[in-house]
Amino acid sequence: MQPSPEQSPHHAYPDHWEADVVLRDGGTARIRPITTDDAERLVSFYEQVSDESKYYRFFAPYPRLSAKDVHRFTHHDYVDRVGLAVTVGGEFIATVRYDRINAQGRPASAPADEAEVAFLVQDAHQGRGVASALLEHIAAVARERGIRRFAAEVLPANNKMIKVFRDAGYTQQRSFEDGSVHLTLDLEPTAESLAVQRAREQRAEARSVQRLLAPGSVAVIGAGRNPGGVGRTVLRNLLGAGFTGRTYAVNSAFAAEQATIDGVPAHRSLGEIGEPVDLAVVAVPADRVPEAVADCGEHGVQGLVVLSAGYAEWGAEGRERQRELVRQARSYGMRIIGPNAFGIINNSEAVRLNASLAPERPASGRIGLFTQSGAIGIALLSGLYRRGAGLSTFISAGNRADISGNDFLQYWYEDPDTDVALLYLESLGNPRKFTRLARRTAAVKPVVVVKGARHSGSTPPGHAVPISRIPDATVSALMRQAGVIRVDTVTEMVDAGLLLADQPLPAGGRVAILGNSESLGLLTYDACLAEGLRPRPPRDLTTAATPQDFRDALAEALADEGCDAVVVTAIPWVGENGEAESGDGEVLATALHAAAAAGPAKPVAVVHVEIGGLAEALAAATSTVAQQRPAPASPGGTASDGTAGGRPAGAPAPAPSGPAPAATPSTGPAPGAATPAPATPPGGVVAGPEGTRVIGRIPAYPAAERAVRALAEAVKYAQWRRQAAVPGKVPEFLDDTIDEPGAAALIEELLGKDPDPRGRPLDHDEARSLLARYGITVRPTLPAPDPEAAVAAAAQLGYPVALKTTAPHLRHRADLGGVRLDLATESALRHAYGELTSLLGKPAELRPVVQSMAPRGVDTVVRATIDPAAGAVLSFGLAGAPSELLGDTAHRLVPATDRDAAELIRSIRAAPVLFGWRGSAPVDTAALEELLLRVSRLVDDHPEVVSIALEPVVVATQGLTVLGASVRLSPPPARTDIGPRRLSNY
To answer: Is the separation of the CB atoms in 969 and 750 below 8 Å?
Structure first.
């Protein structure tokens, strides 16, 4: 909302303070600055506030606002006096205001850094988390304007407001003065305030998804009068699934006398229904959607599923129509799935919702599925159905203009009905948030992702999101760091999902292979080696093996402590006449189920060739057997499946890693902190009647490679989860050698008062000076514009020296002859100088420099870059061909921990060169890890440092030498992963 012309021209309306937020109950609201045009809204809002709330705000009866009050509360300079309002449907539901004050509590201007703050929330909206969201935003505004502390006076009886301040996580002081509680809040964000903010974000966004997936009533807007059509199809699917709530058909073209359609009440508008509607499925042409959305908003609908097409997928005009759709829905507090969506499904028996175009509700199961493509959604539903897999929830979000995969990760994190999350994504609207949420979710249940549009270089039509410049290989590495299981195809996603949903996690990569085909066993053995697993020699049961033989062999393999997982291979039996017999698949499935039930909890996968009924029987989770014994735990309480207390793939770890807020022994849970979802039963082994357990599905695969690839992903994920249970740390000892204030002052000086938004590269001396403040020493170089200067430089540095060109086309190109090493004498240096200039060009073109020689070692390269979408990325590789030609580079998100640094240098394919390959001496990897951590700290502490390249870094057996460094500074890019909660605007 823009201000009127009478608004102060000295401080323009700060439209970047506008934000849409999700409140505690899952509804949305808009936060924006108050302007002079808001007088009537303010008066109307105040009239709806109770006398008690007014008393708490003004410490006295205050029935109405005077004209002077209205003027004061609507006229702000947006620096020393700021007011924000929360609106729903264009009307105020809450306000907050700060006034800058001096040490005596009187109105002041900068450099005074304290402000008095006061809130007022309409009684009907108290308890929705409105004040907490407002505090986050007004604090961010205050910090932007140079205010470091808030002061507030609160009556002792105003417990709600005191709790808002107390639970915010900021450092604060409290005292009791003159009959009121005096609070002072330090606005510098703390680890606790960030944890509280993210916990509230998780609960609010999860609740907003829950309102869509578990509505008490659904209206299909656009249900046709005749059979067929999108709206009528959705209505039929709702009824066919047995939706437990109330269903309505809405179409303005219905005749006045038409009372029902397909047996449900028919209405020409939502207003005719006469009772609340929770979810509206919109299936009308795009030009009629705004009217439908307005009707929904005015009648209290909580969420929308917009199936209508004709939005961003149609170009610029459609993109603007899509933005307006989101603005309109959010103004009423509604969230949207779509537009151009395929629909949603919730298989909970308490809901049985099929508000989609899928003709049949899939079987109930433990897999949550999100897809941005309707076509891929159809294919996945079909594939899962054929494999006998069940879903907890299904969402096909289309253009996902509002609700995205991030929201569903928030929901699935604590959803007890979902053990595995599968996502097909074509774009990442907020990669920083995605990796943060994925890491937290992956700590309690597997997250499997297929990323489409990897190499097109553009965002798919309809996805109006920021473009990331980082290569797909880097995206994949960052997903792995977050614990995400990234696969290449939807088939691989289903394969991995089935194993993870139905089987416990493996404790390691030791695989037993058994079956009735030697050839199929060898294929499985080879596939295991190719995937980095450690297979045991296949056990051939021969073609004469019976189901009992399979049962005995599987039981023996599961009981073997040297085995972490089992792959069973099966081909049809060969009869006495030499003809293949399909055999009884159900009998074999029963035998395998019984063996799995009786043995320790280890993953089992089956590879079969044309055995009729086997896959279907294995997919049936109906077997109940006597409880033999619990899954054995190793010392320290880690069960044989490698998870604490025998937790399976879908069960939460004891302490989620990453940014999820966690309790501490001394303080207990942080105020507002999210608690992990309750543990779910082990995949494949669930609780049955006393003394028994129910055996889940055993996944079956038509090819050995597919089964082994899924198992390998489970092994890598289990290893990540064990490591994530004890997260790495940023070593504290670095603080003694890091001059953060000095670096900040130097960066400010180098950028200047009016920095170029494109940034600027630092010269050699500037880069050395900045890096030195973080304990990173770059070996000096001296210019050598002529032979005499080269000799003088060598005399200053000391022999032996290196002579190098620094021209951009020759930099770091020893293969082109631009580097001469080990020049031990003046004559050798003069000879090299003459040879260099005669072969490659004049000194002015080559820009030669002289540098003292470094100890021999392995040449490496360390880089850090800032991607506007993904954030800061730390990279490592060997210098030259390995990284430049073969792309052998590893990546981690900043800030990097000690564990990240250690993994970074060990995850490249050429890592053996660093650890004594072919008899060479191992290099000082500890020094290399420390260098990586220092670079990470520098980039994390100073967002103005947008790129660093240290090349080469020569790592010797003791210590390392940085021979070259390039640094680029730029005004800090906007951060979307910190600051107050807000919904994305695309």
So the answer is: yes
> Using CA atoms, how far apart are residues 487 and 778, in angstroms rounded to an integer?
40
Half-sphere exposure of 699 (CA within 13 A, CB side): 31
CA distances, 216 to each of 3, 227, 277, 335, 838 (Å)? 41, 25, 8, 16, 84
Cα angle, residue 513 at apex, residues 512 and 519 outer, rounded to 5°: 155
d(CA 79, CA 517): 78
Contact 768, 964 (CB under 8 A): no
pLDDT by residue (tens digit) across 167-225?
A: 999 998 999 888 899 999 999 988 899 999 999 999 999 999 999 999 999 999 999 88
Q: CA 492, 494, 498: angle at the middle one, nearest 5?
A: 120
Pairing mode, strands 364-371 and 391-396: parallel
Choose among 982, 986, 984, 985: nearest CA to 200.
982
Residue 742, pLDDT > 90, answer yes
Interatomic CA distance for residues 281 and 353, integer angstroms = 12
* 373, 385, 649, 923 from 389: Cα distances, Å: 20, 6, 16, 50
Say if residue 926's pLDDT is above 50: yes
Torsion angle of alpha carbons 34, 37, 39, 40, nearest 10°? -120
In whole angstroms, what is the distance from residue 395 CA to residue 377 CA? 8
CA geometry: angle at 475 spanning 728 and 482, to 5°? Answer: 30
Rg (CA), the chain: 32
- Alpha carbon distance 826, 492 (integer Å): 63
Distance, in Å, from the CA atom of 770 to the CA atom of 50, rounded to the nearest integer, reads: 58
Cα–Cα dist 707/700, whole Å: 8
Q: What is the pLDDT of residue 374?
A: 85
Taking phi over 0 as left and psi of -120 to 50 as alpha, with beta for the rest, 127 belongs to left
- Whether 402 contacts 335, CB under 8 Å: yes
Q: Beta-carbon neighbour count of residue 56 at 10 Å?
A: 20
Beta-carbon contacts of 906 under 8 Å, excluding residues fewer than 6 positions away, are none
Closest CA to 368 of 404, 415, 422, 437: 422
Residues 955 and 859: their CA atoms lie apart, in Å, by: 6
| Distance, C-alpha 602 to centroid of its chain | 29
pLDDT tens column, 62-92 = 999 999 999 999 999 999 999 999 999 999 9
State the DSSP string of 589-616.
HHHHHHHHHHS-S--EEEEESS-TTHHH
Asked whether the CA dihedral 748, 754, 758, 763 is positive or negative, the reply is negative
Q: Select from 683, 718, 704 the least CA-distant residue to 531.
A: 704
pLDDT recorded at residue 530: 96
Greatest alpha-carbon span in the chain: 107
**C-alpha distance from residue 373 to each of 264, 340, 400, 721 (Å):** 30, 9, 10, 30
Cβ(335)–Cβ(387) below 8 Å: no
CA angle 505, 511, 515 (to 5 degrees): 115
Euclidean distance between CA atoms 867 and 58, whole angstroms: 48
Give how far Cα 563 sits from Cα of 530, 534, 648, Å.
18, 10, 17
What tokens were used for 466? 């920021």
Q: Which residues contact 570 (CB under 8 A, 6 or more apart)?
A: 515, 516, 517, 550, 588, 606, 607, 608, 609, 611, 614
Residue type, 504: P
Helix (H) or strand (E) holding 748: helix 740-751
SS (H, E, C) 327-384: HHHHHCCCEEECCCCCEEEECCCCCCEEEECCCCCCCEEEEEEEECCHHHHHHHHHHH
pTM for this prediction: 0.83
